[in-house]
Amino acid sequence: MSTASDPWGRVAEDGTVYCRTADGEREIGSWQAGSADEALAFFKRKFDSLETEVSLLEQRITGTDLSPAHARATITRLVVAVTDAHAIGDLAGLRGRLEALTGAVEHRREEHKAAREQAKTEAHEAKERIVAEAERIALEATHWKASGERMRQLLEEWKVAPRGDRAAEAVLWKRLSAARNSFAKRRKAYFATLEEEREGIRARKEQLVSQAEALSSSTDWAATATAFRELMRSWKQAGRADRTAEDELWQRFKTAQDAFFKARAEILDAKDRELREHAVVKEQLLAEAEKLLPATDARAARSALRSIQERWEKAGAVPRDAQDRLEGGLRRIEEGLRKAEDSHWRRTNPEALSRAKGTVDQIRAAITQLEGQLAKAEAKGDLKAQEQAQEALAARRSWLSEAERTLAELSG
Q: How far apart are alpha carbons 285 and 309 in whole angstroms?
């Protein structure tokens, strides 16, 4: 075997591989499977793998929330791996980078400690804001439903908020409870007088029912549908009358509303039937277009497709639930024809065919060489060399399969 050298290592004539360090050369392995340059490349790749691990750790420490304990454990493991590494490269430099990371981890630990203190402060501030809003609602609220919901939300926010100092939270919780109790008393007093207002609500809803009944026979579909939506919004905003009146008025309102929308639906159904007739035409055109693929004469297929597209446009609109399917189907035909045209161009491109043949020949030559190396390794009983040769052969045979497939497509 010839020799090979690198600033960080060398391969002797007998295949022994050495790594250069500040303390001198260290034997790290033996190579018999190929050339000395291949041996150097192999052991340099092992160094590259270690360097990648160190680089990733540097990135995680500086750019993520990796815990100091986890970081220290990873540094310790990598120091051992680098010290005993059978690799060619600047191992001392890697150890230096790992030592520098130790200081960064300590800095991160202090940052975590400061972050915990900051979190406690922020937790207190968040709960202080919750309590302040609850106290404001307890004093000022007049929209009882929305305010009651907000009070419930504030309680849920308190439950999920981070925990801070226990003594300070006890004081805040006492204030929050007092605010909730005050709000509940004011709301109870308000609803005690609500009954007097329900007669006004009944009168307002009587007016809304009269308007709905007047609109029930309208044929101005768009404007009347909008008017009914406004009436419904007003109905919801008016509040509730007593239960008996509420049920009676709602039944009248709903009957008027249903009469209008039923009449509108009958008209829209007729329009929908017309759209579905358009859809039948486009279904037929789509079936005609599908027969164009696979295209044996791309130019003739393109001409036929243009004719179909013209008739497609004349067919008119279709129902919304069929539009995506039909338009998507025609687009797939268009795309299939485009691909057929592209494939035809590639098959007639002599440069691409020549490159594909060259690639296949090159890979086949490499396989022949590797098969020879495997035979030598088997004759020597060198299991490691056999394994390496088999791995290399498997990779190149996979490449050959892909290259032959490409060549077959271009030659087809």
A: 9
Question: Same domain for 337 and 358?
Answer: no
Question: For residue 230, what are the domain limits?
Answer: 197-259
Is residue 106, in this structure, part of any structural domain at all? Answer: no
pLDDT tens-place string over residues 73-110: 888 888 888 888 899 998 889 988 888 888 777 777 77
Q: Name the DSSP letter for residue 34.
A: S
With beta carbons less than 8 A apart as the criterion, state whether 35 and 45 touch: no
Same domain, 181 and 226: no
In a domain, 95, yes or no: no
Kindly report the pTM of this predicted structure: 0.31
**pLDDT category, 339, cuts 50, 70, 90?**
confident
Please give the sequence-ordered ranges of beta strands (E in DSSP) within 159-318, or none if there are none: none
374 C-beta neighbours (distance < 10 Å), count: 19
pLDDT tens for 222-276 read 899 999 899 899 988 988 888 888 889 899 989 999 988 898 888 878 787 877 8
**Structural tokens at position 249:** 């008025």
Task: Tell me which of 292, 320, 347 is where a domain ends.
Answer: 347
The 10s digit of each residue's pLDDT in 17-43 is 999 988 888 888 888 878 888 888 898
Please give the Cα distance from 289 to 301 (Å, whole number). Answer: 9
Distances (CA, A) of 305 to 285, 333, 356, 412: 10, 9, 33, 25
Q: What is the DSSP letter of 17?
A: E
**Cα–Cα distance between 154 and 172 in angstroms, integer?**
13
Tokens, residue 148: 């009651």
pLDDT attached to residue 344:
65
Give every CB contact of residue 133 below 8 A, 6+ residues apart in sequence: 150, 154
For the chain, count helices (H), then strands (E).
Answer: 12, 4
- What is the number of structural domains in the chain? 5
Residue 21: in which H helix or E strand, if any?
strand 16-21
Tell me, yes or no, whether 390 lies in a domain: yes
* Cα–Cα separations (whole angstroms), residue 322 to 316, 332, 335: 13, 15, 20
CA distance 149 to 225: 32
Cβ atoms within 10 Å of 205's Cβ, excluding its own: 23
